[in-house]
Amino acid sequence: MAANLAPDYTSLDPVDTAQPNPFQLMSPVYGSFLHENEDGTYEPDLAKAVEIVDPQTISVELHEGQKFSDGSPFDAEAVKWGLERTKKADNQLAMRVAIQELEEVEIVSPTEVTLHLKTPIAGYFMNLLAQQETAIVSKKAVDDGVNLNSNPVGAGPFMVDSFSPEQSYVLVKNPNYVHADDVSVDRVEYTHVAMGEPQAAANLLLSNEVDAVSGDTKLVPDNLKALENGGVGTRTVTSSARWAQMSLCKSQEPFDDVRVRQALNYAVDRQALIDTGAQGQGLPMWDYFPEGDPLHDPAMDGFFERDIDKAKALLAEAGQSDLSFEIAISPDMRRPAEVLQSQLAEAGIQVKLVQPANLIEEFFIEHVQPAGLFNSGRKGLDKISRTLMPGTVGNVCGWDDPDLNAVVAEAQGLESDSDEYAAAWKEITERTIEQGTAVYLYFGVENSAWNKNTVDELVYTPDSLGQLNVDVARTTLK
Question: Could you tell me the pTM of the whole model?
């Protein structure tokens, strides 16, 4: 499979990695208590059963006789040690801060643990049980001095055969995996393709050097057309976890005025931005979930439909008829930024595009520019808690809405398939969209491709950011 084995993917120990993206490489090795399906539902994996006892308590039951790939027991003692190791590391670069809400891991029996949380966020915490935050490494491997950065030892479906960053990553089936009989793939070899080189990935597939191309290679429409003409299977899905937005420093002038924020939203033609700036791929973003998603709010469709007259009127009312400012842009947003710049100018808004050497440092931390344009990636409540609530880098200039914070805090304790959770999202959506908390532009897409002669079914699973990765343990070959 062609995948991005970036130079900063140098650690396969979950407590050491510098970002969440490498978990697509670690997940087949460590497995997870819960497996997250593409549609966001869960099914047991290393856990036999998981139950929310109350908003601050989660019960986890393990399989009898489960082992790590090195033969040591994957039991309650191992789980307690592993979770406490992760919490102590406090790796906020790669993990969500919610792991620090784990107050105690209580051993009930050799196959049962109870997770006690500091605050009522059990519903939100369930997703951590499917992701890197709760990946359990072998204590025996750590005690024996095994270098987990290059040779991770877990209880998941695969073991590492070899790993060379920016070259290759080879996995072989783990016979100790509790569901080993259900894994049909015996060996997986990832071949490196840099994120900015989708044509290289397409060429590997067309020449039969790989069987599949993962989403992180960022295939574009031209690649897909060539692949389809070459008899290759392709898929494009709109992702609720990938979107383009312009973030604003809402706690300082001029964007502390809701009228100015609303004016910016009315000045944008989202469909034209998709057609001319995003190669026609995407959907206008009216709320946090695209049409077809159970949490999509139809009442918000077209809420900020382009209306230049209304944009100008709001600016005049706010005393900002001559509004001008700088926008920090990420390198991949140059073309959409130029289209947006032209659209804003039609409403009398003059913007200067700036591409910082370090977007996070200049915009998110130092706030050199009052606005930033980039592709964002979050799923579930992280769309809000990581961007609009105090204490996170993504919340530009520290905007604080106590009423919003209270609703989000309540939602974090709810199960994601409950009516109460949906109702909380409706309240969150209406409050934040109407206030113009950002200029949400369009949902992005996930493109992938595979060899129809060798692959029977390509299965996907989302990571903690919502990016869809190929699930090699559930994919089947012909």
Answer: 0.88
